[in-house]
Amino acid sequence: MKHHLSPAMSLALLGVLLFGLATGCFAPAAEMAPMAVFSFAGYDRFVEDLDLLGQAGRNEGLPGQVGRFLGNRSGLESLEGIAKDRPVGMVIATDGLEVVPFLAFIPVTDRDALFKSIAKVTGEPQPAGEGTWKIGRRELTAYLRQRGDWLYMAQTERNLSWLPDPAKVLGKLPERYDFALEFNLQRVPEVFRVFAIDLLRLAMRDRLARREGESEAAHALRYRIGAWEYGTIEQVISESEKVTLGWTLDEKTKQARLDLILKPVAGTKLAGRTESLKKNGARFADLAGEESPLRFHMSLTLSDGQAQKAGDELALIRRLLPPLVRETDWLQSEEDRQAALGLCETLADVVEATIRTRRVDVGFAALGEKPPLTLLAAAHVGDGTILHGTFERIAEMGKRDQRFAGFRADAAKIGEHRIHAVVLGGSNSTPLTRLLGEEPTLYVTFTRDTMWMAAGPEALTVLQRKLTSGASVETPKSPAAPVQIDVRLSKLVDVADKAFDQGAARQAIALLRLQLRGTDDRLTMTVAGTDEGLHVQCVGQEGVVRLVALGVGLQLLLGG
């Protein structure tokens, strides 16, 4: 039997296990510890968020609309007796072997008023023991117990023998996030973690098995790539101590923020990789200004172990190059095959030299207010000068093979820098020409430590500015996150409007442009190492909040 689980599904397996384990016997209360925690900052924060969304989306009635929608879906006319300024939480707990799969805690000001407001949906709470009530009908039941000003809810009465301190369980989650989910992965019983990893490996074996008609070399290459993908997921499961996912809307800054924080186990390889992401100094963080529709940079420092592993993988790929080239059908002659093999080996030499520098630096930016745009990219390389010869050989192949006819060696010169070109072709009606202008051409050049590429109407001008300003060796004047993506949504809408046939998307483009008009519509994602661990953060400014409000409104209009 085949097990066709994608890597994402395999990663989600752990979360499914946490929420879906069957109950049995449970350890004494003192031994229980939170395995997963859900935090909701409270009713007042929720109303503040809805007010902010309503203001951003020019829909002041949004809070009332959401309230009516939730009331209709839940059957509750009101919810009284709850402390609206305090958080609500849920915890899944374990002693290392057994699991309490569900325990919620709700802040109360008047238990009887709360019971009365939920009675229409759950039925009248029935006494089920000293200080315990049962609610629900037929098989959908739960048990309640009050301690102080907290009301605890669980699936069985026995689960209520452990009543944790909500403040201790939730920690700072309600302060930092409106909604948050936190997994303490090392507290997951080992039997379930082993089961998850075994199932992941089974899925990898089936997905990466050799396919019918697939050559040995092609399978070996695909296997190496897939094994890296699955290995990364397995490492996250095995070497992560805690994973936190949090969402919040900030009323003061008008920002929406989504955080993913992965805290590694101390001393693991994952901890070492996270530590390396604390370093700043991305070379290509300043390729364009903040008005760029799209900017990206990544700057990583490889440890000795990472460099060694990358070198080993490259050595394997080098051994696969000759059979892969021989098996390529679109290379029509032995001369072409030998030329292609030489090109691949040269590229492998450059990659090897780059690995030895222990640095990974790449950057990309789109320049211009609206299409046609100029695209600029740069990458750190170990020895870029040898790539000039590679380009010359590709251009020479174009003399006998029309498929390479667009390659032009030494198409221009900037100072001492040789500029090569790739004519991308296409008619004036294609999305490519509408995006980059008539006769779109990619210009490429190589310095000792950098590969530069540019396309669009200002490509040569931009390259000249970068090559004559010493940009190939400069670092940004201010610290930058190791990985960062910046998007200006309104400008991307303009690009989509100009570069592609609108067709059925005309109304959607017009609606997005209207929503984003006059707002700060930046969306930024960063990846960095912090004292908390690996921190992935997405921050959307006011225009993004307005789009969130639009999405909520459409969901209500469509019935959720």
Estimate the strand proportion: 25-35%
Number of helices: 17
**Termini Cα gap:** 38 Å
Q: Structural class, from helix and strand content? A: alpha+beta
**Uncertain segments:** 1-30
Radius of gyration in whole Å, from Cα? 29 Å
Mean pLDDT comes to 84
Largest sheet properties: 20 strands, antiparallel
Structure description:
This protein has 17 helices and 20 strands. The protein has 560 residues and is an alpha+beta fold. It has a domain of 181 residues. Strand 14 and strand 15 form a beta hairpin. Helix 1 runs antiparallel to helix 7, helix 2 packs across helix 17 and helix 7 runs antiparallel to helix 8. The N terminus is likely disordered.
Features:
560 residues; 20-stranded antiparallel beta sheet; disordered N terminus; alpha+beta
